[in-house]
Amino acid sequence: MGAISELFKKNIRQYGMIIALIFISVFFQILTDGILLKPLNVTNLILQNSYILVLAIGMVLVIITGHIDLSVGSVAAFIGALSAIMMVEQQMNPVLAVVLSLLMGALVGAWQGFWVAYIKIPAFIVTLAGMLLFRGLTMIVLNGQSIAPFPKTFQKISSGFIPDFSDGSTLNIVTLLAGIILSVLVVLQEIRMRRTSVKYGFEQTQLWISIVKAAALIIVINLFTFVLAQYNGIPNILLILLVLIAVYSFVMNNMTMGRHIYALGGNEKAASLSGVKTKRVTFWVFVNMGVLSALSGLVFAARLNSATPKAGTNFELDAIAACFIGGASASGGIGTVVGAIIGGLVMGVMNNGMSLVGLGVDWQQGIKGLVLLLAVGFDIYNKSKTA
Questions:
Q1: Which of 175, 207, 288, 348 has the smallest set of CB atoms within 10 Å of its CB?
Q2: Positions of the chain with pLDDT under 50
Q3: Is 307 exposed, middle or buried, given 0-12, 13-18 or 19+ CB atoms closer than 10 A?
């Protein structure tokens, strides 16, 4: 029991939110008479929250560096509007339009990153200006009207599913195989981590704890894929999200860039004296945020099948809330990509569950605000206990 307690204390933010996510899911599963975790609703949960989760991945990097980005919702709307002009009005090839849209997002991020990193204007001010600027540009580009419909191939980003090779089956075989493959990868990753600990003489987790942790993850993965297999299988956007999570988690945990981002957020002066090019790191974090904002705007436009002047409203608040609920620190230096995803899922399950039980938008907003306040309070309490 002492080993479990120690493991939990070391990972209290992440494990605490995983437990909260499970509790909230079970709570609303009971309140909705089993509707919450039905295959159709689980798929809808993924589709409805995909663009917020994309933003949360970029936002957690910004928050770790000690900054904030209030413009992501407006940038998403602006890029969605530009993509509609290219694909709907100009009849441009969707692949080319998507590439150009992502490049435009990078330019937007570079514009804001320049003012934050090199001119030293606080990110709050720069991105607040960006929120107003790009919302206004969205209105100008769309002339106050929606543009639709998008090409079918583009819509599949948000509404398409990975094809299955067994048409006559009641279960999606590709999805079940994906669950098995992921289970094998979990086992291999656990073995690799233990071997690395032995090689470098790090403190090792007890073997039985590693086995229980891997077994629990494998059960969750296979239950999740089994539920998806009962509907249409794996949505395209889920595959995109999994790739993003894997890539960004690897960068933050295993690459020099990730270590520099954490160092910058922990103590900028110390990081600079240690040789970290703090201005360059800040600049590229905002460029990355611009690209992911563009991707979020494309995903939302594809799901809505329309570019609208009001797209992206409050996206920034949901993304920031997901990061803080997922364990990121308001003072920087702390946070994980997986934690931000868990925080986004907590918000998504709450939104969906409250809608299913018939709570009004007023109550939903109030409860979400209270959850965010409690999450940040929990973070401050933990820091005071470890200080």
A1: 207
A2: none
A3: buried
DSSP label at residue 161 = B
pLDDT at 59: 96
> Could you tell me which residues are beta bridge partners of residue 161?
235
Annotated domain spans of the chain? 37-160+236-385, 162-234
Pick the CATH number of 37-160+236-385 from 2.60.120, 3.40.30, 1.10.150, 1.10.3470: 1.10.3470
- 105 with 58: CB under 8 angstroms? no
* Ramachandran angles phi, psi of 56, nearest 5°: -65, -35
CA separation for the pair 271, 274 (Å, rounded) = 5
CA diameter of the chain? 64
Cα(57)–Cα(35) distance, integer angstroms: 28
pLDDT confidence of residue 9: 58
- From the number of C-beta atoms within 10 Å of its C-beta (0-12, 13-18, 19+), residue 151 rates as middle
C-alpha distance from residue 221 to each of 19, 100, 178, 182 (Å): 16, 35, 9, 7
Return the closest-CA partner of residue 71 out of 114, 124, 121: 124
- Is the separation of the CB atoms in 91 and 34 below 8 Å? no
Q: How many Cβ atoms are within 10 Å of 320's Cβ, its own excluded?
A: 25
